[in-house]
């Protein structure tokens, strides 16, 4: 058992985009294993947009990260030692003790993974929280129906890329996505099966969305101009699943909301926010459906890797500059 490891602490609360000055890499001594505990050597660490909100000291649906303590987040790793009958050395597991190279944790907090079904890293993306988020947003929140026209913003990200494909697999009449580069737009159409996509840098979202209107379902990962444009082009009684608003996560002052909110009334729209943690009842359906789609080749994915714990902060910052295609991961 290694006696020392490294982990990343939040050293200061950021205003705007977090930088290296807000984090500290710390060497720590590992405790001896207690009863029903395991030592895990992490192999892949997740960075996700929601982590930005936890860096603020504000009340939210999850507690903020503590200062001068390790951050946490999704991770997969290999059990090195175990004092539990539930897990054995060599098992690959999913857990939430990310942002570090090793973790000692209760065996009950680690879920064994079937790496014969998919690579371990996939359980942080297409078969993990992002995939389940996409599934919940379409099936439980927007209640997508066969034949719907579906628009997904942030469509080349971990959640959006899965949401667009699930919409297609559930019988959407048309799936439209927006992304931040021509290369990402081509990936959406050529590989993921979106019917149309556009680069939001090429002009106002509302103008680029107009040829695809009316929109029955909008899966919102971005907020801001994307939400305003979608509202403008929603069909009567359309449904909006509000998953995230990454466009404003690093804003240093509150930003004005969409200017056309009255259209929610006149079009009789449903706009519903959600977090996936409130919908664990959907997990078994998701794993059944997504596993079958993945095995059949109907659900595909990409991962963007950066290497080493020292790249963790850069990987997180890269989410906000569009460095990732699909899921962003740190590989140890």
Short description:
This protein is 24% helix and 26% strand. By secondary structure, the chain is of the alpha/beta class. Strands 3, 4, 5, 6, 7, 14 and 15 form a seven-stranded mixed β-sheet that branches. Strands 10-9-8-11-12-13 form a six-stranded parallel β-sheet, sandwiched between helices. A two-stranded antiparallel ribbon has the order 1-2.
Helical residue percent band: 10-25%
* Residue windows where pLDDT falls under 50 for at least 5 positions: none
From the alpha-carbon coordinates, what is the Rg to the nearest angstrom? Answer: 20 Å
| Count of alpha and pi helical runs | 9
Number of strands: 15
Major sheet description: 7 strands, mixed
Q: Which class do the helix and strand fractions yield?
A: alpha/beta
Shape: globular
Reading off the top of the CATH hierarchy, the class of the largest domain is best stated as Alpha Beta
Mean pLDDT: 96
By CATH, the superfamily of the largest domain comes out as Medium-chain alcohol dehydrogenases, catalytic domain
What key attributes describe this structure?
15 strands, six-stranded parallel beta sheet, Quinone Oxidoreductase, Chain A, domain 1, Rossmann fold, 332 residues
Could you characterize what this model shows?
By secondary structure, the chain is of the alpha/beta class. Strands 3, 4, 5, 6, 7, 14 and 15 form a seven-stranded mixed sheet that branches. It has nine helices and 15 strands. The radius of gyration is 20 Å and the shape is globular.
């Amino acid at each position: 058992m290694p006696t020392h490891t490294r982990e990343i602490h939040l050293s200061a609360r950021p205003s705007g985009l977090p930088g290296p000055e807000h984090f500290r890499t710390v060497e720590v001594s590992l405790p001896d294993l207690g009863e029903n505990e395991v030592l895990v050597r992490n192999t892949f660490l997740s960075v996700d947009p929601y982590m930005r909100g936890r860096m603020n000291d504000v009340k939210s649906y999850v507690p903020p990260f503590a200062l001068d303590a390790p951050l946490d987040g999704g991770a997969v790793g290999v059990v090195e030692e175990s004092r539990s009958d539930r897990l054995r050395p060599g098992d690959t597991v999913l857990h939430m003790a990310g942002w570090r190279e090793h973790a000692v944790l209760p065996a009950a907090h680690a879920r064994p993974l079937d790496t014969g079904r998919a690579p371990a890293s996939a359980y942080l993306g297409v078969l993990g929280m992002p995939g389940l988020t996409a599934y919940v947003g379409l099936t439980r929140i927007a209640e997508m129906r066969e034949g719907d026209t579906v628009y997904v913003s942030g469509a080349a990200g971990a959640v959006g890329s899965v949401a667009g494909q699930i919409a297609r697999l559930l019988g959407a009449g048309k799936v439209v996505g927006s992304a931040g580069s021509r290369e990402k737009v081509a990936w959406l159409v050529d590989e993921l099966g979106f019917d149309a996509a556009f680069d939001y840098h090429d002009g106002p979202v509302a103008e680029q969305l107009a040829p695809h209107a009316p929109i029955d379902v909008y899966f919102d990962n971005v907020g801001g101009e994307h939400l305003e444009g979608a509202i403008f082009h929603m069909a009567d009684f359309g449904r909006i699943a509000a998953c995230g608003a990454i466009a404003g996560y690093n804003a240093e002052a509150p930003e004005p909301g969409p200017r056309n909110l009255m259209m929610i009334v006149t079009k009789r729209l449903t706009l519903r926010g959600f977090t996936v943690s409130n919908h664990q009842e959907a997990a078994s359906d998701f794993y059944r459906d997504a596993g079958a789609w993945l095995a059949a080749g109907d659900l595909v994915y990409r991962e963007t890797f950066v290497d080493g714990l020292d790249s963790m902060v850069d990987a997180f910052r890269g989410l906000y500059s569009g460095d990732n295609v699909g899921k962003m991961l740190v590989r140890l």
